[in-house]
Amino acid sequence: MSDIAKRGSEEEEIKRRVIEQLDALGVRDKLKVLDFSRELAARGPAGPQQPRSVGATGGAVLAFAGTIPKDDLEEIRRAVEEDCEKVDEEGW
Fold it and tell me: Is residue 50 part of a domain?
């Protein structure tokens, strides 16, 4: 089997497995997967030949602005308030 055919069959297997996992999710989680896949696609093709840069600028972080659903942000905020804003006077 040629490298091209092998790579094609590997890609088809990955697609099949992703769809299998996607079928097991609810609508809200499917939308999260869609958002994530759009973000990955916007970055362009990735692979071992394209390492991620270290020390990216703030502009790189802006690509993620608005990608976390408001319900999830609220849940994170509540968790931080409930678990992280406690002071143990007897602790260290």
Answer: no
